[in-house]
Structure formats: structure tokens, C-alpha cells
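Discussion board: Methods & Data

I've been asked by a reviewer to show the raw model output for two of the constructs in my manuscript, not just the figures. I'm not sure how much to include, so I'm pasting the format here to get opinions. Each protein appears as its amino acid sequence followed by a line of C-alpha cells. Is this the kind of thing reviewers expect to see in a supplement, or should I convert it first? Here is construct A:
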Amino acid sequence: MNRCWTALALFLFAACGPKSTSPKGSAEPSPTNDDITMDRIHLYLHDTRPTQGAPRKPAFAVQAESVALADQGVQSFQNARAVIHSADRQTEDILIDAGCGRIEEAKSAYLEGGVVARIGSMRLDLEDLEWLNQQRLARTDRPVRIVDGSSRFRAAGMRLDMDAGELILTNGTGLFCFERNTS
């Protein structure tokens, strides 16, 4: 399904792109993957679990200002907004901003460059973030800073298991305040 959307986007880009102004018979070099760039594109990684006849829902989605075909099945992008969708639709989705990244068809996505993830009121500042689609796992082995209200926390790395709803931090330090509900 993802290949169909990629093929459709490439077809529309080729059909609507600039027309050649060179005379017939002139030798123009054929385009390479570096020559193919698209603007304001949405890319999706769909949930890989069986759906019993229902259409698959996106597990990870990226909207990017600029997308280029890097290799077969890999697209690189700039200025991205991404969403990691919860499986049950009761858990909050994770909203992510990143400077750049790449997505490998049906497998994974990698974000870097000022990565900021938001889960409700919680903000996570990261150097990079990798999404493993099959495992529905977001991870980084680089420093993480978490801010939520008056809580401040730092960690050397993290794992976020979307199915289990677990945020696992490694080598963490900081202050985490539990607020009491007074109602």
C-alpha cells in the first residue's frame, strides 16, 4: 500500500512538474534519486498487526516541507512534524517536531535536529528519535530532557513502548513532582 502511494506521488510530481525546454534529440542526463524532491508531503508507516478485514491505521505519520528519495524504499525529509498514533485511540498521540530525518518503507523512521516530542503536557527534548514500526517502539540512546509542570528530569536514553504504555529511562536524574488532585 505504501509503495502505491509513493508511486502515485512520483507520478503526480512527474506529470505536473516543469516541461523540458531542450530540443528533441539533445542528450539530457537521466534524473537520479538526488534530482527527485517533493514539497509538503505526508509519509506514513501503517500498523503491522492483523486487522481482520479493516483497513490498517497509521502508526507513524510525518508531514515534511521537503522530501527526497534517498535510496530504494528510503525517503529523507526536512522540517518535519510527526505523530506516533496510539493503538487504542484512548492513549494520547505523541506529537513530534524535528529538523530532518528519514523513513524506511514499512520498517522505521529516524528523526534528528532539535527533536521535541509532546505527550499531553509533557515535553521531551531529544537529540534524535528512532521509531521501530514492527515493535511499535520509540527509542534513543542519546540524552533526553523531560519537562512537565514543575518536574524536570534528565536521562541518558529512553524507550517508549506504545503497546505497553511504558516510558523507560536509563541513568535518569532529576526532580519529579507528583501533584495532588484537590477536587
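Construct B, same format:
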Amino acid sequence: MRIHDLKDKKALKVAIYTEDTYGLGFIKNVINRLISEGFISIKIQLAKTYTPALIKKCHNVRKVKSVIREVDRVLIIIDKENTYNYDENKDIWRHLRGLKNEDKKKIVVIATEPEIEEWICISLKHKFDKTGNDVENKPSRVLERQLGYKKSKLKDLANELDFDKLLAKSKSFRVFYESLKA
């Protein structure tokens, strides 16, 4: 259901952690589109946002602890690309031990398969290697060949997303979308 009347709604305060600088602009644009097109019926207030190069490293994951009490939701968006064996417990949660249960419930880990550009490829019906093992057919390389894509233009491609298609075909997008519904 798409609802556009947000004026009397309490804002959901969200902190976003992405792996790179360009991912943050993309995610902000996606959130703005979800709101403007009525997919999300609440206000989203972006709190502190971070783009540590290696969010999976413990010193960066621990930065979540510094904002957890100030927000309603923390989104940690990571790529599961290449031969890297992603393990959410090993890579994220072990660094957040000691958090209270109510704080842990605020954290949502969104692991794209194999990288955030999968959302664009799915929307535009471009085939790609979901495992990320075939470097030449990972989403960013497919977009580079098909559209002349450069990572610095990622945020502009938020306009190409087909939300209905992504909700049907992308697990990471569904997790992202559900995390924004209070």
C-alpha cells in the first residue's frame, strides 16, 4: 500500500553505514524515492551516516555503538562480493557484543549479493554473476559495459530502480525496504 500523507507521522531516525562514499548518496536517493513514490509511509530522518572503507573490520563496526542510543534504526550495508566468505556473526555481530537487546534490535545488516549494483542490474534486466566470483560479470562490470557506469555516478542510478521488481527478486532490497517500515 502506498501512502503519501506524512505530515503527522513521527520520523524514523536512521543511521546508515556503507562500505564506500558513493553508496551513501545512492541509499539516500533510494530512500527519498521510496518516500516520494509512496512505498514508505513514514518520515525518515537521517542521523549520522558513515562510510568507513572497511565496515566489516571491528574498529569500524564498533562505531555503531556510539550512535545506537540516538537513533531508531542502524543500517549496515555491505557487499558479499568475490570469494570472500561472508559470515554475519563473524563479521558484524561479534564486534557488537555487550549491546543491550533493545539496541541490538535496532541494527539491520543488509548484505547485497554480490554488491549494491545488483539492484540496478535486476531493475534493468541485466544478467550478472550473483556469487561475485566471476569478476567480469559482477554487477558493476556489467553496468560499466552496458551503460558506461562509473562508481561516482552510483547515486544517479537510484532513479533507474524498479521497486516492485526488486521487492520480488532481491533479498537484500527486501531487507532494506522492511527495515525502513517502522
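Answer (T.O., handling editor elsewhere):
This is acceptable in a supplement if you add a one-line summary per construct. For B, something like: Residues 21-36 form the longest helix (16 residues).
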